[in-house]
Amino acid sequence: MHGLRVLVIEDEPDMQETCAKVVRHMGYAVDCAADAETGLRLIRERTYGVAIVDIRLPGMDGLAFLREVRRIQPDLVVIVITAFASVETDLEAMQSGAFDYIPKPFTMRQLEIVVQRACQYRRLYEQYQDLRRQLQERWQVEGIVGQAPNFRRVLQQVHQVAASDVSVLIRGESGTGKELIARAIHRLSPRAGGPFVALDCGAIPETLLEAEMFGYEKGAFTGASVARPGLLEQAHGGTLFLDEVSNLPLALQAKLLRVLQERTFRRLGGRGEVEVDVRVIAATHEDLAGLVRDGRFREDLFYRLNVVEIQLPPLRDRPGDIPLLAEYFFQQLRPRFLKPLEGISRATYVVLQRYAWPGNVRELRNAVEHAMVVASGPWITPLDLPEHILRALREFPEKGSCLPYAQARKTALREFERQYLIRLLAQTQGNVSEAARIAGLRRTSIYKLLCRHGLVPSKFR
Question: What is the predicted pLDDT for the residue at 88?
Fold first, then answer.
């Protein structure tokens, strides 16, 4: 007998006995309950690794049970059985914490596969918790820099979803770090020991995309002289990251949906089914919900991918992080340069924070690297920045159409506030008391203004 104990909650005696029989045959101890209330009592009395729960139960239904279980034993792996499968029900079950669901009618073999996956995940989760306790002090996400409140919420979500196995959709403008966030989720998850495989759905021609994802058998098409596994197989036991998933053709969307539902697929030219165990993290800079409305993206696949959504803020909405990121990139790149480089000047930080960064973090890194290449002295100056950034800052006052008076006045006042504070901090080298004296304001008022604009005094010292 394996050490894991499984709980079956099913009000139909025949179905309950079938589920229990499958679990016992797999070598796991099993307890049964005919209603959710009895199941919750058993969970309070002993520890279970996996629970199999019918979504329609007398009294408290399966979804209410899921929500209560999350409070009592949040790490319990729950499989939902339902005869009322629908996109909305499936999504609600997954968002309520279900590991997977299986619609009636199903075969004993289908149930066995789902239970086996759940038990494997539970064991991985326990190993992950042990490792997490050992490495608690290293839980700051390596390679990810940011202190802005909107970005700290993103990091909180990363830690939350990493502990589960649900699909994640990462949304954000180009250059905001979507793949970096996906890799962080993988590194912090129970699948960290498995591969992380990335596929840019927009970088591969549509004619080659299917072969790249699913692989092919020898002779599947002209030039297929040997069989080749696709990225799905290469990601087995780990995470498959689908960047710019909105570029997937509709035909491939249907095949990906089947993989997410059945955990099996066929190679191009193949006849046999290939079983695969992967977590899918998708990313896009587009509005997938809008694409669904336009008929360009499948609604059922959208719900499967969008169990948890992480929205990355553009760099212009976290201006206080710009000096942190610039310094991080400077230190990261400095070993590549033979010439002596001491750092980035305060005046350069001021310029960097004035720019809108349409290319986001990626553009900032490129700008820092460019400045390090052309710098003639030990300190990076504003004149070392790429010309398009300096030109954009010079032209900024002349650009843009007129806004309504009230909105234009509000925007101008906010920009005045920000630029005034930047100049004030640069002049006082980050000394808030001196800044308050020059401005004729209380120190508390200065701190409130700095917080509103995401400015950090220490970065001007």
Answer: 58
- Give mean pLDDT, residues 237-246: 95
Listing DSSP states for 212-273 in one string gives HHHEE-TTSSTT--S-EE-HHHHTTTSEEEEETGGGS-HHHHHHHHHHHHHSEE--BT--S-
In angstroms, the CA 307 to CA 236 distance is 21
Find, among 298, 294, 267, 293, the residue nearest to 282 by Cα. 298
Are 165 and 278 a contacting pair, CB within 8 Å?
no
Partner residues linked to 196 by β-bridges = 239
**What residue ranges define each of the domains in the chain, with the CATH number in brackets?**
5-132 (3.40.50.2300), 148-311 (3.40.50.300), 317-460 (1.10.8.60)
Rounded CA gap, 113 and 115, in Å?
Answer: 6
Residue type, 197: V
Phi/psi at 395 (5° precision): -85, -10
φ/ψ (deg, to 5) at 78: -115, 130
pLDDT digits (tens, 9 = 90+) for 378-407: 888 888 999 988 888 776 543 334 556 666
The per-residue pLDDT for 399 is 38
* For helices 87-95 and 62-72, angle between their N-to-C axes, nearest 10 degrees: 10
- For residues 355 and 322, give the distance between their C-alpha atoms in angstroms, rounded to a whole number: 10
Rounded Cα–Cα distance for residues 15 and 9 (Å)? 10
Q: If you ran DSSP here, which 8-state letter would residue 321 be given?
A: G
Q: What angle (nearest 5°) sits at the alpha carbon of residue 91, between those of residues 282 and 10?
A: 130
Structure tokens at 203: 């970088």
Q: What distance in Å separates the CA atoms of residue 283 and residue 31, rounded to the nearest whole number?
A: 40
Which run of H or of E encompasses 371? helix 360-374
Task: Find the DSSP H helices in 396-459.
Answer: 405-428, 432-439, 443-452
Strands ordered across the beta sheet of 50-54: 29-33, 5-9, 50-54, 77-82, 100-103
The C-alpha atoms of residue 216 and residue 263 are separated, in whole angstroms, by 18
Q: How many CB atoms lie under 10 A from the CB of residue 292?
A: 17
Cis peptide before 397 (omega within 30 of 0): no
Q: Is the pTM of this model over 0.85?
A: no
pLDDT tens for residues 275-310?
Answer: 899 999 999 999 999 999 999 999 999 999 999 999
The token duo for 158 is: 């990363």
